[in-house]
Amino acid sequence: MRDTPATLVYIAPWECSAAVAPLPPEPGDRLVVCFIRARDEERALPWHRRRHVLVRSAARHFADELRAAGWRVDERDAPTVREGLEAAVAEHGVSRLVATVPREWDLRGEFAALRPRLRAAGVTMRFVEDRGFLSTRAEFAEWTEGRKELRMEFFYREMRRRHRVLLDADGGPEGGTWNLDAENRKPWPRDRAHPVPRRVTPTPIALAAVAEAGAMPSLWGRAEDFDLPVTRAAALDWLGHFLDELLPEFGPYEDAMRAGEPDLLHSALASAMNVGLLHPLEIVRGAEARYRAGRAPLASVEGFIRQILGWREYVRGLYRHLMPGFRTVNALGASRALPLWYWDPDASGGYDGPTNAPCGMRCLADSARMVRDHGRVHHIHRLMVLSNFATLAGVVPHELSRWFWAGFTDAWEWVELPNVMGMATHGDGGVMASKPYVASGAYVNRMSDYCGSCQYDVKRRSGEGACPFNLLYWDFLARHRERFVDHPRMAMMIRNLDRMPAAELAGIRAEAEAFLAQVPWDSPHPPATTAGA
Ligand code: SF4
User: Fold this and answer.
1) What's the gap in Å between 467 CA and the centre of ligand 1?
2) Which of 195, 326, 457, 499 is the most interior residue, by most CB within 10 Å?
3) 485 Cβ partners below 8 Å, 6+ apart?
4) Tell me: the pLDDT tens digits for 157-204?
5) Is residue 186 within 8 Å of residue 372, measured between CB atoms?
6) Which atom number of ligand 1 is nearest to the Cα of residue 364?
7) From the alpha carbon of 361, which atom of ligand 1 is closest?
8) Nearest 5 degrees, angle CA 514-CA 515-CA 519?
9) H or E element: which one contains 517?
10) pLDDT for 531
11) Are 358 and 344 in contact (CB under 8 A)?
């Protein structure tokens, strides 16, 4: 007969392997491991069906693995995490609850509400540092102290030094330069075939979750052909494939876009890493080992490692540093809702009037379709198409942020919020990025194959058929001229604006206004008819 457990360990949805879960090395009778499927999580936003499949399946697999290894496991459904934990603590009669410091802001609130209730029942709570990251709260706080600017680049250098990653014998950056981004901006060669997409055969647990997601009308997007790893073994296999097959050429083409290709040479590992199936350090070490073995060039390896050791850690630190006000920043005074096109680029399903207009911008429609169909698309589609359009058009950053949070399998608030509010929309006024990431259609044309088959003409900056990105770009610069006129990194853009004849600019701005007037703005959430499981 088993002893009464003394400790309950809460496993958050992003701690789905022993690599990150707050567990001791061996199971014991005095400890019970608790997973909670909180119903409120899936009521807050119309989550993507693939996200549901990933999160639910990874947790179910991990619970099964722990059970098979001799752990006492409690899996339960509950209205909220707080209510689930309170019930589990009472049922098991434990005197101690252990959990990781909440990664997501809302969970913090739940624990704050739980603590006095447990204390009244004689139960103590202990938080442990998040094992899914390579920097601690204290380290990030120390780094921010006394700094006027919180730029990723300097934080990244410190992380390289602290973890001794890609350093030369003297402790300097391998190859003499910290950041090789300038070498990584090539478009995809016109005559080159696309990489064969990596696919994982769904486990029975994942297939059951696909069916479950399909029957949930509150969810969004497609779950069929689910293709992501939901076990640690499958995630390690996926990682190995990326490091061996894709990483060597990842760097030069990391900014390239091709229609219908959500990943190209990108790893798509963030979904697995952000539910805890992989530890960031094993990914970083694996990439560095390929470089040291002469199997991948420095520019590719550095570019990839920067995303994990630098960017991922940095955005998590900033999220904690700037919440809760980070949710509502809007430095550029944007005022529009997110267009229906993001939820439904085909706009099918019985909408009348302007909301029935399909998105004729090929780059935007294809990127939004890939999000709907795959729950992901790589960073340049996110930044330079989906976010670029929203920023130029004056969409409220929070509106865009909620769509990214709901629609991507790798999105959690700690990662999407800084990316959208800081990097993508300049909503934070320049805390993260010194200037807005905005561009005309010329950038999309240079980095993709979209424009050749688009109904718009990317070469036209005004008049019949002019690319909307061109209209909106000049309109954006004119709208915010006073703000950026003295900005060193915007100076060239503003000079180009100022050189434009006043009549031409007035014409472009009138066309931009006419274009925006026919965008379907009035659907902040996906209509039920777009669900299509
Ligand atoms: Fe996008 Fe403009 Fe190119 Fe069309 S022409 S694909 S709208 S950038």
Assistant:
1) 6
2) 326
3) 494
4) 999 999 999 999 999 999 999 999 888 889 999 999 999 877 789 999
5) no
6) 1
7) 7
8) 115
9) helix 502-517
10) 34
11) no
